[in-house]
Amino acid sequence: MITVKNIVVSFSKRQVIKKVSFQVKEGAVVGLIGPNGAGKTTIMKTILGLLKFEGAIQINGSAVTVNNHQALTKVGALIERPAIYPFLTGRQNLTLYCKNQQDVLDLVTSLEMTAYVDDKSKQYSLGMKQKLGIAIALLNQPEFVILDEPMNGLDIEATILVRQIIKKYADGGTSFLISSHILSELEKVITDVVLINNGEILVEKPITELIQNEHQQYKLVTNNLAKTVALLDANGIKSENNETYLMIDASRILEIQPIIYAHGIQLLELSPITIDFEEVVVNVLKEREVNPK
Ligand SMILES: Nc1ncnc2c1ncn2[C@@H]1O[C@H](COP(=O)(O)OP(=O)(O)OP(=O)(O)O)[C@@H](O)[C@H]1O
């Protein structure tokens, strides 16, 4: 587990990370999200012992400091640009960092890099470099992987591939801390969300909880909407009629089926009205603008 407790990071006396605390549990894929300049990269660099900080960071109980990187031996990372030697081939770069050659073979295959892995990496496109950087981060069976904008420059196929690999590693117990601005993509892979703004945490939650909170309304479709409205009304259940469906408050949905069945009405659909992850995040940020702490 990575435990970040009350960390404060300052640049020239300006606090950019302000008492941030969160955890990354085993097998969790935590999305670290927030607007530009929120402090995501700074937090990642701090966890990697690259920046001075106040507070405490522990990886499996062992402290990370600027002078002690012992805790980081099982941590793989891709921060900002991949650390690649341009005059070496992709394979030579991977070999340089790996402890077990089999890892290189596996990652080259699973990230579909075979066609160019023996070319000099200075010739690589942005996406090829990015894949190589991700492969380096995943070498040596890491317990934790920190990825800053891993989908940068990746095409759709590579994005799907990277998503599948993250899931495979997470299923095997590897934990991830991933930042990305592509929330629709991040949503497909993360288990938890840490949302930051101006160096402060606004939300730390499982993603299901964050989105579920917004499932306040259900969509109800029956074979007789007008009669359904009247029946619900008679039972004190408010519904909003949108012509093709009714909107019902989540707190009353369990009562609906017995009422309509008793009157011979057929239930065709009863499903939560979801708003997507992107909308939830925008709403949280907007709400904070209106009601600052
Ligand atoms: N080396 C530095 N010196 C001074 N200020 C810095 C330095 N690095 C980052 N900052 C400042 O710290 C704040 C957080 O920056 P950071 O790069 O962590 O944000 P971010 O959330 O990763 O943003 P983005 O989404 O744009 O990558 C910003 O205000 C930035 O200007």
TrEMBL record:
Domain ABC transporter, residue spans: 2-223
Residues annotated as transmembrane: none
The organism's place on the tree of life at top rank: Bacteria
Keywords: ATP-binding, Nucleotide-binding, Transport
Gene Ontology MF terms in the entry: ATP binding; ATP hydrolysis activity
Listed SMART domains: AAA
Taxonomic source organism: Latilactobacillus fuchuensis
Identification of the protein by name: ABC superfamily ATP binding cassette transporter, ABC protein
Family: Belongs to the ABC transporter superfamily.
InterPro entries assigned to the protein according to its UniProt record, in alphabetical order: AAA+_ATPase, ABC_transporter-like_ATP-bd, ABC_transporter-like_CS, P-loop_NTPase
Presence of the UniProt keyword Transport in the record: yes
